[in-house]
Amino acid sequence: SQIDIRMSVASFDKKKKMVKKAVKQKDVLESNGCLPETMLTLDGDPLTWYTSWATNLSDETFQWVFALFETNMRLMYEKSQWGWDPENKKNELQATTARYLVLKNDKGKEIAYCHFRIDMDHEYAVIYCYEIQVEKEYQRKGLGSIIMNVLERLAVKLDMDKIMATVFKYNIRSLNFFRKIGFEEDETNPSYDERDYLILSKPVSVL
């Protein structure tokens, strides 16, 4: 009906305004109280963190971001339909809307990061997790769960509809991780089998 259409348009406009406002917040994680006072690995090692816009990362830090991505993901991209395109990936990692949560060990060494964005996806207000990359010696120590807990807090605080991620079908570890924390195939996931990735999401209503 016309009333339903007007209501859905009003709801969509409200979400767009909300996303626009959130995108402009300088430090969206800190200003919304989403970061825990203490972070520990599963071994009990203390972690520190900082947040940054992609455009504010130092050249040295960005080189680390890209090198870690390449170490962890290059082989997966080479066998994917997208192929390995380092320039394209650098542009994505440095986009003006890209934000970073970076974790450091007790010696101050950067050991993991999350690249995320606040966006509209179709008619939904979402936090899109583009990357979680962890240095090899810190994998399987709970860092991914720490990062996703932070993003889930943010999604609740900002009144988002869902958190999303895109994962290669053959990235079994990553798929298992997201499924374990409650992600399922999103309604926008391509239904035909030729695609070699899945679009996953977790509605904020279940958090």
UniProtKB/TrEMBL annotation:
CDD domains per record: NAT_SF
Task: Give one Pfam family, short name only.
Answer: Acetyltransf_1
E.C. number(s) listed in UniProt: 2.3.1.257
Recall the GO molecular function terms of this protein's record.
Answer: histone H2A acetyltransferase activity; histone H4 acetyltransferase activity; protein N-terminal-serine acetyltransferase activity
Q: Which InterPro entries match?
A: Acyl_CoA_acyltransferase, GNAT_dom, NAA40
- Reactions listed under catalytic activity: N-terminal L-seryl-[histone H4] + acetyl-CoA = N-terminal N(alpha)-acetyl-L-seryl-[histone H4] + CoA + H(+); N-terminal L-seryl-[histone H2A] + acetyl-CoA = N-terminal N(alpha)-acetyl-L-seryl-[histone H2A] + CoA + H(+)
Location comes to:
Cytoplasm; Nucleus
Q: Name one GO cellular component term.
A: cytoplasm
Q: Which UniProt keywords apply?
A: Acyltransferase, Cytoplasm, Nucleus, Transferase
Q: Which positions fall inside the N-acetyltransferase domain?
A: 55-205
Top-level taxonomic group: Eukaryota
> What family classification does the UniProt entry report for this protein?
Belongs to the acetyltransferase family. NAA40 subfamily.
Q: What is this protein called?
A: N-alpha-acetyltransferase 40
